[in-house]
Design goal:
Layout lengths: L6 H8 L1 E5 L15 E5 L11 E4 L5 E3 L1 E5 L4 E4 L7 E3 L4 E10 L3 E4 L4 H12 L4 H20 L1
Antiparallel strand pairs: 1-2, 2-8, 3-4, 3-8, 5-6, 6-7, 8-9
């Protein structure tokens, strides 16, 4: 397997992908460069709270959480994002089934009760997310100025 294989190619060939993520869209759950994800090729309709890996119109590979399921599409939002995305089944190449937190503790998304509670609370609090994001920015700004010096 070459380094240039896409996640979709790897899932098509092997049915499973493991690796690190880039970006901060799934924080606080998954951290860039620290958490090793396990993605499997998915069959059938996904459910609310599932985390699909999909290719957007720009060809970028993205992993965000399903917050609504419709007959012909899903509404998906990153845990650290506000924007809703509309994704169809043909865009999806796999589904996150677990990850190693800091390379040590394995979190199984299918069976871990703490994860299931987290995902339901995080989605339930979506209406408050803009306020949370703004507050986080206000609190972090002085610290960034201090540590920048």
């Amino acid at each position: 397997m070459s380094e240039l294989d896409s996640i979709r190619d790897i899932l098509d060939k092997h049915g499973k992908y493991t690796g690190f993520t880039t970006g901060v869209s799934m924080q606080p759950m998954i951290h860039q460069g620290k958490d090793n994800i396990i993605v499997v090729k998915c069959d059938g309709k996904l459910k609310k709270y599932d985390i699909p890996v999909y290719i957007n119109a720009d060809g970028k590979t993205i992993m965000h959480r399903i917050v609504e399921v419709h007959d012909d599409h899903y509404i998906i939002v990153g845990d650290n994002c506000l924007a809703r995305e509309y994704v169809t089944d043909d865009m999806i190449c796999g589904k996150l089934v677990g990850y190693y937190h800091n390379g040590k503790k394995y979190i199984d998304l299918e069976t871990n009760k703490a994860y299931k509670l987290y995902s339901r609370i995080w989605v339930g609090l979506m209406p408050l997310r803009p306020m949370y994001m703004r507050l986080k920015h206000i609190v972090a700004k002085p610290f960034k100025a201090i540590f920048k010096k």
